[in-house]
Amino acid sequence: MGHHRLKSVPKVRKWRAVVDGVLGGAGPLSGDVDRLAALTLDTAAPALERGKADVGLRHTFYLLTQIALAAREPDWRARLAAVGIPLPSDASLFDLTTALHTAVDGHVSARGHPTDIGEMAQQAAGEALASLAGNNAATLFGSGGEHLQRAVRRLSTRAGFARLGQRFFGRFLTRFLNFYLSRLTATAAGGERARSVGDVSRFNDALLTHCQQSALIVRGFCGQWYSKTEFVEGIDADNASRFMAVALRKLTDELGQQRLGL
């Protein structure tokens, strides 16, 4: 399962166009678009592959599976508390994402130290949950525990977790590529570049769109793995980490395909 590569996913915004956006078109780095687009992927791809060993990333993804599975249970708060995510009875989506961050922080601190990759994963998980469950959880800060559980339960099916997986990996990839691209462009410009708020917003939107489309490569894989693994053996930290490593490999391969297309 999951060992074949899907056909190339069409992108609304090609990677070169995204990089051209951050360089400002006719700006001082406009002649460096091709070089920086290639260099970003050359730098990010091996780092993404190494990220599969990151404790924070691994535990964040595992907890996402547990949040989805807990939503099926009559007492979902007890199931969540068992994996280190205690919630009040009137928990909001904000309470859930905060508890998720706290649980990952505690897990990481007991086994090492925080990393940039782990922080990106936490932010990506919170954003993924908020973007998919937020509209059905009444309000972000106060909706009641039952509303929240019903909203998250929509993500507990095969199709629902496929959406959640794509959204998580897409958001993570967005932050990951932005991390490298921002540093490379700042270095190339001698740290003197400044963009307007509108420019930043447009770039972020383009990058997010590009990365969410790139993450389509793992969407069906996430749903298939989640459904089959829970049915056959149950999802635990070990098999979730193994799956995440394969998902990262698929994303790394996707970056490689984009590099070849430059």
Kindly describe this structure:
The chain has 262 residues and is mainly α. It folds into 2 domains: 15-52 and 158-260, no CATH class; 55-153, no CATH class. It contains 11 helices and no strands. It has helices spanning 15-23, 33-50, 55-70, 76-82, 93-109, 116-133, 145-153, 158-188, 197-214, 216-232, 237-260. Helix 1 crosses helix 2 (33-50), helix 1 (15-23) runs antiparallel to helix 9 and helix 10 runs antiparallel to helix 11 (237-260).
Give the uncertain stretches in residue-range form. 1-13
Give the distance, in angstroms, between the N- and C-terminal Cα atoms.
30 Å
Q: What is the CA-atom radius of gyration, in angstroms?
A: 19 Å
Overall pLDDT score: 84
Total discrete domains:
2
Counted beta strands: 0
* Main sheet specs: none
Strand content: under 5%
Please render the helix and strand layout as text.
Elements: H1 15-23, H2 33-50, H3 55-70, H4 76-82, H5 93-109, H6 116-133, H7 145-153, H8 158-188, H9 197-214, H10 216-232, H11 237-260
Summary, kept brief:
The chain has 262 residues and is an all-alpha fold. Helix content is 70%, strand content 0%. It is globular and about 55 Å long.
What labels would you give this structure?
262 residues, mainly alpha, 2 domains, 11 helices, globular, disordered N terminus
